[in-house]
Amino acid sequence: MSDETPGGHAIETLQVEDRRYPPSPEFSRQANAGPDIYSKSFEDFWTEEANRVTFFEPWEQLYEWKPPYAKWFVGGKLNVCYNCVDRHVESGLKDKVAYLWEGEPEEERQKITFGQLQKDVVRFANALKKLGVKKGTRIGIYMGMIPELPVAMLACTRIGAPFTVVFGGFSGESLSGRMNDMQCELLITQDEGWRRGNRVPLKANADAALEQSPTVKRCLVVRRTGGDVNMQAGRDLWADDVLKEMDDESSRSLSFGARRTSAGSPATATSSSDRSPTRTPGSSTKARRIFPTRTAGGRSSSATGPTSCTPRRPRSVPT
């Protein structure tokens, strides 16, 4: 293909790419998806994938499809935090790195193991419980990309508290809109964040949002930069002050079907329970709230599977 420019020179654009980069046999053997997935029926595929998730109580029906509503793994009970953290610790992987974190400034790096992650999550969950959070309490999270962010999210799923994560670059007005939409009772934020060497006034933005968020009664603040921020008596609490008094041991029954309700233990939820709402595609404008795409069973099973982010409506399998 070629185009003539005003100066008369031709620009050639090559759009043919026939190079191939096949994976090594070793890599192919450990892949989640293999060629055999196309020969499986829809039901067989998702039934097999469900075995990669730990259910406290087994599901009885794969799906219930009543357009436009769908339920997955009907009757099953699980906990997302247990599947993300505890089961790996119990299987002997407590010293395995769960994820690597690299922050700002550049020299800030951490290796978080499953064992450490479990302790951090249990401690945070117990702190939330002390503040009155229970199964069904709705929480807003307004933080930067720091290790405490996934800890807070996992702590919410451990308790069974639905949460909404608001991008740390959004304004106080956007934050209040999302918290009011969900009727949050508690906000988790931080003093400030770092972004390209500049401080982001997260707590100041949160203060502006809280003035317009009547349902939010408490604000838990993670200390990040150590910057001077306003702390309103009776509402705002430093996270480290609350966390230092909390236990980090997870006491739980190992039998399936047991209700994990003791301190630090994961609460059960049906596989179609609401976990967190999302919004229609990434915009800062007023958007419609959506719950179904974040149900515990669908999201958990798909997170371990090789296909799209949520199980789809039954359809013919391509050959």
Computed Rg: 23 Å
Gap between N and C termini: 33 Å
Mean pLDDT: 83
Portion in strands: 15-25%
The residue ranges in which pLDDT falls below 50 over 5 or more consecutive positions are: 252-263, 290-295, 301-319
Structural class of the helix and strand makeup? alpha/beta
Summed up, the helix count is: 9
CATH class division of the domain at 80-267: Alpha Beta
Helix-strand topology string: EEHHEEEHEEHEHEHEEEHEEHEEEH
Largest sheet: 5 strands, parallel
Shape: globular
CATH topology of the domain at 80-267: Rossmann fold
Numbering strands along the chain, what is their spatial order in the largest sheet?
9-8-10-13-14
CATH homologous superfamily assignment of the domain at 80-267: ANL, N-terminal domain
Percent range for helical residues? 25-40%
